[in-house]
Each structure stands twice: as structure tokens, then as C-alpha cells.
Amino acid sequence: SRMEVLERLSLISKVTTELYNHWGVEDKDLAEFVVHLGEESSHVNEFESKLEDSGAKVSRSLAETLFTLIQKLGKKKQPAPSPASHPGAASASSSAAAHGSPAAAPPSRANGASDDDVSPVSPHDRLLRERARRFPGLAVPDNRNREELQMERPDEHAPVSSAARKLLLREESDNTRDREGWRDALASERERSRGDMEDRSPTRHDDDRRKRHRDESHDEGPPRYVPGRRMPVLLYGIYDGTVSRVMDYGCFIALETAEGRKEGLVHASEIRAEGKVLKCQDVISRNTAVKVKIIGIAGSKLSLSMREVDQETGEDLKPRKKKTQHDMDDEDPLSSYANPARPKEMERPGFGGLTGIKLDDNTFTQEGSKRQKKQLSDLEKWEAQKLRHSGVLPVNEYVEFDEEQGLMPETEVAADVEVEIIEIEPAFLKGQTTRTGAQLSPIKIVANPDGSLARAAATQSALSKERREVRDQQQRSLLDSIPKDMNRPWEDPNPEPGERTIAQALRGVGASAYEMPEWKKMYIGKSVSYGQKSKMSLKEQRESLPIFKLRDALLQAIHDNQVLIVIGETGSGKTTQMTQYLAEAGYTTRGMIGCTQPRRVAAMSVAKRVAEEFGCRLGQEVGYAIRFEDCTSQDTQIKYMTDGMLLREALIDTKLSKYSTILLDEAHERTIATDVLFGLLKQAVRERPDLKLIVTSATLDAEKFSSYFFNSHIFTIPGRTFPVEILYTKEPENDYVEAALITVLQIHLCEPEGDILVFLTGQEEIDTACQTLHERMQRLENMNPPPLIPLPVYSALPSEMQTMIFDPAPPGCRKCVVATNIAEASLTIDGIFFVVDPGFAKVKMYNPKTGMDSLVVAPISQANARQRAGRAGRTGPGKCYRLYTEQAYRTEMLSTAVPEIQRTNLANTVLLLKAMGVNDMLNFDFMDPPPVQTLINALEALYELGALDEEGLMTRLGRKMAEFPMEPNLSKMLLTAVDLKCSDEIITIVGMLTVQNVFYRPRDKQAVADQKKSKFHQPEGDHLTLLEVYKSWQANRFSNPWCYENFIQARALRKAQDVRKQLITIMDRYKLDILSAGRDYNRVRKSICAGFFRHACKKDPQEGYRTLTDHQQVYIHPSSALYNKGPEWIVYHELVLTTKEYLRECCTLEPQWLVELAPNLFKKADDTKLSKRKMRERIEPLYNRFEEPNAWRLSKRKG
């Protein structure tokens, strides 16, 4: 009847809602299949087991909810018909299950097949078959012998070429460069002497010497500088000249040459040898006679230098080989650092040899190198207009004045180019992406989205914002207390120089984070020890570790088992001692011993410690390898490395033939690289019976590792554990930070002695907690409580501050360590008796729809909670205060944490697997398979970058991209720069992007810091601003005082320099040209756009920008050089979510580049039709633009 149909639809709708809340899948076919299972079940246990047999992971609470719904609203259970009478029943249920990813139905039988003819199929295999049918792009057959995957492997220890050596020498300080130059000169002199001795024909030797002398004299050009003589235009020639014009950025010099009168520019950095001149008018004036040297020729333009010429004698202070204009025409002017052995197999006329990018006729000409006009904010435009109307400024000082073309129009009328997204899917992903409406299931990181823990995490951001507003209000009240006459310079339209700076400094009086506690003042200005102090010798320290007593048993277990799972708590010695035990037992005779670490700092510090215990220099028998840094040699026996570095070695050799034993340390952290290594090493162990694999973990959940690795043996190292009392709250806590602070004070005032460990989620919360604890302890001074020493620990804290937590508290004091989840397993802190666990941590989460990684506060897992509680039982019996209910622990926390591979972007991982010949992502042996939607998005992104072809197979470009240890966007940008002959600049930009923040902005000197930063701003955007910072640092001989004066972090620049050196070495190893574009920043911008075209945005008519791919509203970050400049088109490096969706590191682009560089994603819109973007825009009236939206409605009016 109709009523039954409506009840059935209501049941399906309710089940669909429940599945979406818990699984994130909104599929009615799947809901019908779940209802079918529920109607066929007589009890909830039977229903739960049927769901699990079908491949669904379901909690007990969800199973009970669904079963209750189905029993209440579903139809009564009827006897199941026989398969013979209804042959299509099983097929129908199977097709219904095919639309849902968490479950699959029993397979349908072939026509006339009997039970004996059909082999049993496991639910897991059935699910894989269904997924392979739905997603054929993820089930492409593996092929490791394709021609595109074969690359000539360079020698990693081969010396660099002379061109790369010149670039590396430019990165050294003057003293190092002098030493290197002396060595090179000595080596060349020995080579010359050896050649003279080997030549036995004096006649031929004399002839060759005369011929060589003639050739050299011809190449050297005209003789040296002669006063008053007119010479032809020569590169590196010296001429007399007269200053014709003086500008802020340099001066123009008129030259008298043999071809007639010429004019060239001396940049401000080329006037004096001491460095860049800030104001050229102070050091030079018009009609001054000078001597200059031509250092660059670009068409009719001359680039001159005064600092390389002695202004009295005309002597060349920096001699270089002179070249005539004819030589410049015959020779590529950009090939000064070109690699002579670069590959030529892919080069086509008019196209790039590596990326296939189309090279226009004006790509490397003067027309193509025209720089972008400087963007002005509205305030700057208004000031320029008023100055122009006042008649005070001469024409050549107008903002619109150009040195070459004179007075330019105020606004350049550019062609309105409309760009649209191509809705056609690649052939291997047809019907599988979200473009065709496919609904895929994301991974949920919260067990119960409606629970108390999820609500507390959601409200915490609002509470943090409220705390920030309170601090800002306190600061504003302090500013208001400043006498009004101190603020008067801000009202003066023309203040004296420096007054604005003084006033801004006064405004930062109350800007300090909090008053520095006494415990911190004790350490300021004093030497701080690194690490834990010990009076024992190295031998005694090794023998005191818990693993030492089990040395023989451990070695026997390794000998008897090819794969071994080792369980040991932090501090048991497994990381530092197991590799030495293996080396002492002779395992290094068949190859190296490799040990992976999830963090770069851990790999370096552990290797340094093991080298000291092993008795060798770091880099000899014991070394380490991290990204952009390799400290190993031919003699290395024990090698510590990040898991990503071992994954890159597997790219070269999947069997890892040079290793005899591999240790996967801290495997419980489940990084992406570790999860991929699980599958690769599992295959390598099958192919190499002599390979030993040891997987170590600090948690007790080892059964999963054991069952994955062929039910391997588990070896447990007993730790120094004591009983821990677990205490839960009776009611859920809404503000876990406040609850943690109250708990700490209760422990401090009521419990016996013992240090406290508090777990919070991030730096802001930790700083706030330390500040609040210090303030509250000051209020309690009249009660004379024992001192409480708050110690923050997070990754951004300096190392000397982090190591304070290892020092014991002074007598009569209690130490309170406030840390992130880094203290769960990575740190060993003695003396902790009390642990305060709010139950939250920051988790990196990737949103495939927006393509954005964000840190989300989420509940921890039960395994993490047990790990945190164990921290209180290291020294003696302890207590763990869990700030959540026991019910929340059991029902709202996952049993184990969601691995990183299921919640982050996998583009780089898929690229590496494709480079290894692994195309079938569904059947790759992941311990926990990543979500299908993330894999589809990764394949789609790689296809758009040109790394995959229409069949989903890797291209030659993709294989080259996989060789660089960076994200695919950056490697595509770098390879495009090689074709556009600007790789020198892009290498620098990549190095600067790898560091966190180059500029620092002290609260008490914000105005000065902003003023210094604005000097580096480039009209093209932040990427070129970072390039200009590095160039200026290089021009100032890598000076630390220069960094201090300009509010730049010298440590960040040093790190960027190290990355640049390593990239130079890698590119030289693969015979890629490293060329400079000079001042032609258009090629640099085009290279950036080639890698990050998916991050393109267009200015929104209302506010901010709109991304082209998903039309998301975004805003330029206030720290950007393009802030308030309003360029029409930009491309960004990363998107961060704070109070708004902000764009970091933005760069301007030309819209026609998108169609040219990304033909798989963008196309030019039809000029005869209204574009999709314009169809989405709304006409907003201007007369009420400042009113609230919808304020005109009657419902919004008051009274």
C-alpha cells in the first residue's frame, strides 16, 4: 500500500542520515542494503556480524541504533527464498552494495552455476573487486619495466661540475671562497705542469703555444682602458662617462663610444664597493665625470658598474674576459652556467626540452622581459594624485613616469581574459571524480560527531578567541593611559623623521606576551646545557638501560626471525642500542644497518649520540641522511635517516640491496612514508630472504603489526613501569584549558611532591596556560605556597628552552611541564608523578574538496590516552587526571588513531609509487588503505601537472619530478624554470619557501620592522620579495648584522642557503642547466604559475578573491607584499585557515598563462557567450553598499 511505501521511504531516509553522520556516506542504495541486512537478522549481534562480514567497520552503538530503527519501521522477517527460485536476488543486493564504499554484498552467481562450481570469495576480496569495478583508474595493472620509468642513475658520490662549483662558491663567505679559489688555482697549476711534462715534442709545443696565444689575444678584444679613446661597445669594457640623471634606484651614464653616444644604467648596488646605496643623490650628482664598466648588454640597453673600476686610474678591479657584440649574438647569453652534458632527447624547436612548455618568440627577448608596473594601494594613489595636482613634483618623479616610455597612463587597459575549468575528465578517471557528481566517503577522525568531546573541541576556538580579545582589551587600556601629547605625532601630517617610530614603540609598551617569570629570568644570559645530565660514563649509561639485560635474547630473536616486532617504552634504549648490537654481532658484513626516524631532528641527534658511543666521527661508520643533507660516507655501517629518505632510496632500488637490516623505529606514529614502507618492505622481505626487518613501537598495540607482517614474532622489552591510578570527571568539561589549570593548582596545593605533565594542543594554548599559572601563583603568594615552575614544550621553542624540562626541580619546588603530544612517546621526562590529560590533540586533516591542509583539534584515541597515562608511572606510582568521562573514553574515542595516510594529501606519495611501477593502488598492500577520494584527487592533480598521461601511466616528466625530494608542485615549477632559463632564481625561491618565516616582527618595534620589510617588496608579489631578500643578503656577504638591521632571521636564511646548495648538487647530478634570468621576472612568474596553477585566484567584485577551481572566498594575508594592492589575478603558495581563509606567498600572473601552462585544466572562455564566472556574479547597488546585508527587509527592522 501507499502507507507502507511512505514508511519504507522514511526508514531509508533515517538510515541514510545515520550513515552520513558516522561514515560520511549519503547513499540510499547503501541504506537499502543495510536495511536488508537488518531485516534478515534476528538479533543485534547477528546484524553487527553481517555488517563486518560485508567489509563495514561499525561501532556497537551505531549497530544498536540501526537495528532498533529497522526493527521498528521495517517489514517483518520472512523465510528467505531459495537461490533457484530467485536467481537475481543476490545480484540485486550486490549491485546495491556497489554504490557504497563501506560495505559490499555477496557476489552474484553465473547462470546455471552450482555451489560446487563457485569458489568461496572472502569479503575483503569481494570489496576490492567492487572497488576495482567502480574505480578502474585506481586498478591500473602494475608495470615496472616501462621505458618511461627507466632513468640513468647518476653517481651520488661523483664530484660536481665546474659550473656547479662556481655557483656553490658564490654561496660561501669570503674566507672560504679564497681558500677554495687557492685550491683550484693550485690544482690547475699542477695540471698544467703535468701536461707540459707529458708533451715530448718541443716543436709541436711551440706551435700550439703560438696558436693558443693568437686565439687568446683575439678573444680578449681591444687593449686596456685608454683615457679619451672611443672604443666599440664591448661586454666588460671600460669607458669614460658623464652622469646624466640620478634616480632613487641608480643613475644613468652617457658614454661616448665608437658607435656614437650611448646611455646605460648604474644600479644603486653597483655604485660603491661597500654595498647598495640607499639614496643615490647623497653620493653622486649630475654632470659628474665617472669611469664605468659594461657588465650587461640586453638589446640596446647597457648595464654599467662603477664599483668594479678604479675611478682614478681606470683599472679593472674585477677582470673578466671581454666579448664583442658579435660574440654576444653568436653565443647564448644565458649559458654561463649551462651544463654541457645536458640531455637533448626531448628537445623540440619552440618547446621546452623537459616539460614541453611552448616557448614564444618573445620569451627571451626584451619585449618578453618587460617588468610589471608597480601596484599601488588606494591611499598611495590618492597621495600621488594630490602631489601631481599640487605642482610640487617634477614630471620625472611622478609615479606614472617610466624611464623608457615617459609619462604612462594612470591605468593600463588590459584585455579581459576569461578562463574556465575544463569539465572533461581524463580517460582513466572517467565517471570517478566529483566533476560528474560521484559521492565518495571521506575518513572521519571523530568516533562520535555528536559527543561531548566533539562539542568541546568545537567550542574551544571560540574560547581561544575570547581569551585573545581580553588580552587585546588590556593592551588597549594600557595604550589609552599614555599621555595624549605622546600620540600627537600620529596626528601631524608631516612629522619629523623618527617621531612615528617613537610613537609606535610607545604603542607596543603592553605588547609583551606576559611578564617573564622568575624561573625564566634565571636562565637568560647564562649557558644552558643540552639534554639530560649524567655523571656516569658512556659504558655505564649503556649498561644501565633496560635493553642491555636482554641483549643476547634480542640477538637470538633477530637471528631466528626474518621479521621481528619489538615493543619497548621510550627510554628503554631500543633506538640507540639495537643498531650497535647488530653491528657488534656482524650484521654489517652483508650490508648497512638502516634505522628510520619519523622526525629530522631525531635522526640527527640519535646519530650523533650513537657515533659517540661507537667511538667514531659522525659521518664515518655512523651517519645520517635527511632531506637536503647527507652526512654519510663510503665507510658508513649504521645509517639513521628519516622514513622519507628510505622511501626515496626504494625509488632507486625496491629491494634495498645495500642494507642487511632495516629498523622502522617509532612505527606507532604511522607517518605516510612509514605506511608506504610497510608495503614495500613486505615485498622486499619476500624477494630477499637475507634481509632482516625490525619494527619497533612504544605502544602495546603490536598485534596489528604482527598480523600484517606474516604473524611475526613479538619481542617485548619490559620498562620501568609502576601502577597508575586513573581518575575521570563526573561531567563533561566545556573549557578543557581552564579545567586543566584548575586541576594543576589542585594537585600542586593538595598532593604530595612530584612533577606534573599537562597535555595541550598547541603553542597558543601552552603560552596562555603558562601565563595564567604564573599569574594565579602570584595571587596566592599571601598563602605562601611552594613555588610552581611552568615549563612549556612545543616544536617552535628554542632547543635550549626545551631541554630545561630534563633538569630536576630545585628543592621545595614543583615542576609543571605543559607540552603537546610530543611528550607522549618522543620524550622521556623523569620525576613525573601526575598527568593531566584533557583528551585532545591537533591533527593534520586534508579536505579534498578545498585542497587545503588544516590543523584540527580532535579527540585522541584510546591508545594515545593509555600512552599519556603511562607517563605518570615511570618514576613511581602516579595518577592520571582525565578531563573527560569514562563513558566518553569508551564510546567517543577511536581504539587507535587514524593514520596520517588516511587524512592527508597523497599527491607526492602516489607520484613515488607510480615511479616505482605501482599503478594498482587498490591492491597495494597498505596496512590501512587510504580513502578512495584522496587517491582520486591525487591522480587528478598529477594528471593536470603532466606527470600522468591519459591512461594513468607515468610520463617522462613525472619520472623526473619524482627525483626531487619535494612536493610535485615545486618539482614541476623547478623543471619548468629549466626550460625557461630561470632555474637559478627558482632554486632560491624554493629554498626560501621551505623555511617557516624569514621576517620577524617584534611587538615593540612593529613600525620599524614593517618599514624595513617594505623595502624588499616587489610589484610581482611575495615570491620575488623572498628572492630579493636572498639576493640582498648575498650581496652583503651573508652578513648576520645585516639580517639584524633588517629584521630578518639569519637562521632561516642559512637553512634556505643549505637547501639551495643541495638543489644545485641534485640538478648538476641530473645534468640540468642552472641559468639566471637577470631582471626578467616574467619568466620566474611563469615558472611559479606552471607549478601552482591550481592555486590561481581572480579578484572578486565584492571583496577578496575567488579560487578558480572551487570558487572559494579567500583573502590575501596582511603580511603579503600584495596586500591592499588589488591585482586582478594571483597565484598562492598555501592556504591557511585562521580567522579567515588567508593566502600566503602570493604572486601575480597573466590569465593567458593558465591556458598555456595547464591545458588539461583550463580553457579560454567563449567570447560570444556569458562566462560561468559572470553568471555567478550578482549586481550589488552602490548607494547602500556599507549597510548590513538584508537590512532592507521588514523582519530586520527594529520597532
Automatic annotation (TrEMBL):
Keywords, sorted A to Z: ATP-binding, Helicase, Hydrolase, mRNA processing, mRNA splicing, Nucleotide-binding, Nucleus
Residue ranges of every copy of the Helicase C-terminal domain listed in the record: 743-917
PROSITE patterns: DEAH_ATP_HELICASE, HELICASE_ATP_BIND_1, HELICASE_CTER, S1
A Gene Ontology molecular function term of the record: RNA binding
Helicase ATP-binding domain residues: 555-718
Gene3D superfamilies attached to this UniProt entry: 1.20.120.1080, Nucleic acid-binding proteins (2.40.50.140), P-loop containing nucleotide triphosphate hydrolases (3.40.50.300)
This protein's name: RNA helicase
Species of origin: Vitrella brassicaformis
